[in-house]
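Budget justification aside, the reviewers requested a transparent look at the raw inputs and outputs of the sequence design task funded under Objective 1. We therefore reproduce one unedited record. The lines immediately below are the structure tokens for a 511-residue chain.
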């Protein structure tokens, strides 16, 4: 059994062990059990567990109680890199307060690049780190960037023993075919230079309700087919917890979703009968369209990143001092986080009011927009911008003239943007907001819409994947990995919504 062979291999004298760990096959259990057995035996230093998310840090912390601080340190790989960079910040030409700088400037990739170069040029640093952390456990290593990987291998060269867990089929952060191929090649090279084993028991589904063990076996079989450049056969008998719904997308706009009544009914029934469900789509545009498809009764899971807010902060730093440019920042942000507030509907009037100095008395919708313009002319900065966004929220709640049809889809991002006014510097504000978010780690609602990327690392009882067409899940390394990640989020049931024509080439369906 792979569980026992992996258990034994982890505890061997081999310095480099790589474990292929498909979703739900007991990777965290194996890693935590290894820490409990090995960390107390270390004569010097501590075991270091490196993850890619704070949520994963929490899971390992829960599983290694009693060891943390004594024999085990648990960090995200970015936090470890920041620690190294802080010690050598002058040599690297970086500020002393690196955590704030990195959050404020999206600087973690740059930090990783600089630290990778530092360790390559100064191997004695890796030797010192290897003495401090003689055993390093790397979680979800398929998500490591080239610089992350180079840093880990520098620590290995410095003497650290590595235990690496990853799943090549969950690598979904390289979309370009060439980049995805290089990422896969790097993983395979790592496997070839290591002692390697694979977990293959679907523990997640064995602990669930009747019929879910069949789902687990089906998901693992689907993974093997996708990995081998094969297709998933939906024409043969499927587990009772795997459902296929055929529905053609009749929306004319790109990224939109509409279905005729007969196609829509089984989709609605599937959503309504579930107490917990993730509806997963391949991209943000489709998620936004599905939000409208269900008349906004299903919230969007925004994950732990805020793309519109980070762009807003970058834009406002350039626009500060120019009220018209600040208005452009506001318009773009509102278009990104909701519907009903656009350049045509509100933006032109807003900029006209700013250009004319808000001199005329306005009522109705122009009067509401004039209020926003005054915020921006009085304080053409992140402060005025944040206060204008807060006022928009009030207008929406009170159904003020011109705002009854404005709807917010990204509620957390909309709310967090209003906090910019609490800080003197927008970049530091973004850093503080981001750091606080990683500590709070919000969770999805029982029923949520999300992109596959936002759902990665999460589980849900039931998953509906929309829309399984060629554009969403193409026959590429990236498309195959993305489909597998979507399938493996489900604990109890999977529903595939597939068009009758131009369906994903990764499925065989009845014509």
């Amino acid at each position: 059994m792979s569980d026992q062979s992996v258990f034994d291999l982890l505890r061997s004298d081999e310095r480099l062990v790589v474990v292929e760990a498909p979703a739900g096959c007991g990777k965290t259990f194996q890693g935590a059990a290894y820490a409990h057995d090995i960390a107390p035996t270390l004569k010097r230093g501590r075991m270091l567990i490196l993850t890619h998310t704070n949520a994963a840090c929490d899971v390992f912390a829960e599983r290694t109680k009693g060891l943390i601080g004594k024999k085990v340190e648990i960090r995200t790989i970015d936090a470890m890199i920041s620690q190294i960079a802080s010690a050598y910040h002058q040599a690297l030409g970086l500020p002393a307060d690196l955590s704030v700088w990195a959050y404020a400037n999206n600087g973690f990739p740059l930090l990783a690049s600089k630290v990778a170069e530092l360790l390559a040029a100064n191997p004695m640093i890796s030797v010192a780190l290897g003495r401090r952390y003689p055993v390093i456990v790397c979680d979800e290593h398929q998500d490591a960037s080239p610089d992350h990987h180079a840093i880990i291998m520098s620590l290995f060269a410095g003497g650290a023993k590595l235990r690496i867990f990853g799943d090549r089929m969950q690598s979904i952060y390289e979309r370009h075919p060439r980049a995805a191929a290089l990422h896969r090649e790097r993983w395979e090279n790592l496997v070839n230079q290591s002692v390697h084993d694979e977990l293959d028991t679907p523990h997640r589904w064995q602990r669930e309700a009747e019929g879910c063990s069949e789902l687990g076996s089906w998901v693992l079989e689907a993974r093997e087919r996708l990995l081998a450049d094969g297709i998933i056969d939906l024409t043969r008998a499927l587990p009772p917890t795997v459902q296929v719904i055929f529905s053609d997308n009749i929306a004319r706009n790109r990224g939109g979703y509409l279905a005729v009544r007969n196609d829509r009914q089984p989709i609605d029934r599937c959503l309504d009968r579930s107490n917990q469900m993730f509806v997963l789509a391949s991209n943000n545009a489709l998620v936004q369209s599905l939000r409208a498809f269900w008349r906004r009764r299903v919230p969007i899971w925004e994950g732990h990143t805020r793309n519109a807010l980070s762009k807003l902060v970058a834009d406002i730093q350039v626009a500060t001092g120019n009220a018209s440019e600040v208005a452009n920042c506001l318009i773009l942000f509102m278009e990104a986080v909701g519907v009903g507030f656009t350049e045509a509907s509100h933006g032109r009037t807003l900029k006209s009011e700013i250009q004319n100095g808000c001199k005329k008395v306005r009522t109705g919708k122009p009067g509401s927009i004039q209020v926003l313009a005054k915020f921006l002319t009085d304080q053409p900065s992140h402060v005025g911008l944040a206060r204008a966004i807060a006022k928009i929220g009030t207008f929406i709640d009170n159904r003020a003239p011109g705002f009854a049809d404005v709807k917010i889809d990204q509620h957390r991002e909309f709310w967090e943007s209003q906090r910019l006014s609490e800080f003197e510097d927008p970049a530091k504000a973004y850093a503080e907001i981001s750091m606080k978010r990683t500590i709070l780690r919000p969770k999805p609602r029982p029923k949520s819409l999300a992109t596959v990327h936002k759902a990665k690392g999460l589980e849900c009882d039931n998953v509906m994947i929309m829309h399984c067409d060629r554009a969403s899940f193409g026959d590429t390394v990236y498309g195959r990995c993305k489909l597998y990640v979507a399938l493996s989020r489900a604990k109890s049931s999977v529903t595939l919504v597939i068009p009758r024509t131009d369906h994903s080439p990764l499925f065989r369906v009845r014509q």
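The mean pLDDT is 91. The first helix runs from residue 2 to 10. Computational costs for records of this kind are itemized in the attached budget.
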